[in-house]
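Troubleshooting log. The previous structure file for this entry was overwritten by mistake, so regenerating from the original sequence record. Sequence copied from the archived sheet and checked twice against the printout by T.R.
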Amino acid sequence: MTSSFTMHTTQCDGARIHVLPAWPQDWDVEFTLHAPYRTTIECTWRNGALERLTVTPAERAANVVVHLDGRDVRADLGRGQR
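Regenerated output below.
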C-alpha cells in the first residue's frame, strides 16, 4: 500500500521530482514524503486545488514539477513554499 501511495503522489526522474503525477483531482490528500537528494516534500491537495507545497531544502524547489489538470507546471515556490 505504501509504495502505491508514493507512486501516485511523487515520482522521481533523475533530480526532477513530480508531485501528484497520478492523483485523482477530486481526492483530497495531505502527505510528507522523502525524495532523493535529502529532499522532503510536504503537500496538501484539497477540493481539486493545491493548498500547500513545501520543499526542503528550498534549493530543490527548482526541480519540482506539479501536475495540474493533466499538464506539468513547474512549481514557483520561492523559499521552498507555495
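DSSP finds one helix and seven strands in the chain. Archived copy saved in two places this time.
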